[in-house]
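Annotators were shown the component list below and the corresponding predicted structure, then asked to write short factual statements about the assembly.
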Amino acid sequence: MTIGEAAKASGVSAKMIRYYEQIGLIAPVARTESGYRIYAEADVHTLRFIRRARDLGFMVEGIGDLLALWQDRSRHSADVKRVALEHVTALEQKIRELEAMAATIRHLASCCAGDDRPDCPILDDFEQGEPGTKTGAPPRFGAPGAR
Amino acid sequence: MTIGEAAKASGVSAKMIRYYEQIGLIAPVARTESGYRIYAEADVHTLRFIRRARDLGFMVEGIGDLLALWQDRSRHSADVKRVALEHVTALEQKIRELEAMAATIRHLASCCAGDDRPDCPILDDFEQGEPGTKTGAPPRFGAPGAR
DNA sequence: CTTGACCTTCCCATGGTTGGAACCCTTAGA
DNA sequence: TCTAAGGGTTCCAACCATGGGAAGGTCAAG
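Structure shown to annotators:
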């Protein structure tokens, strides 16, 4: 199977398959004499696993952990569960942050007439620069890949 | 005021102030003979506005829109409200996505014994590669700046 | 043999932010 | 006056996951 076929079969783009190999998430596969990568069913299986984990919001590091557990026949399910629940905690944390933002903006917007006059409580709030506590980066949820 | 003082006064790091100037979000400020940027209170005011918008999850593009409206005395509050509510919609969309992920993982984890045996329904699910519909990038919520 | 569809590697861009290097400027103390 | 510390300046690189594209090799069908 060529990389393109493996991509179709797994739902992971050829670009990403090469990337995952490059960063060591998956092992380099065999090559034809001319250098083409060749994939077996087992590789596609692994790629599907990765895709599923990715779709559930795991980052490459976490996916690596899960892959290692998957391939370790003497794993303890407790370890898998822990990784999964840690991820849930992270997701919940992020959800709370986004909800706080949405709630704040909704509140400000509800105070805004939304007509052709310039007065706007939203801008007034921003202008005051409400001493936020967050100093770090804001979230990026613009689905970077969806351009 | 030097850039470091403006950074402390606004809560925006000196690095980011230079970056915002570079990408045109804020106009270049005056310089001393030796090239130091000099900031006035009004500039700090603008920086605080930016910080507040950023903390509420606006991306630079949206912040630019809001800044333009802020500085346009003949703006219509409806325009501000529209930008704000579009952002809320995007936030809600993202929240739904994250909640779907969390729910799925919580469900799988609830089916996992979490003991020292290797059998794990979480891995079983991932292994099946549940034909997800999402092809794009997963969210990145690891607070990129918090390294 | 040509054509077109694939593969290869390499570089570039995104978004917001941080880090560092290499260098210049200013100020305070010895 | 010299010097050290702590600013400032620019430029380059990195993060993460992904897509885009160029330049060139390979393969199968017509």
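Statements collected:
1. Chain B touches chain A through 78 residues (CB under 8 Å).
2. Residues 77-110 of chain B form the longest helix (34 residues).
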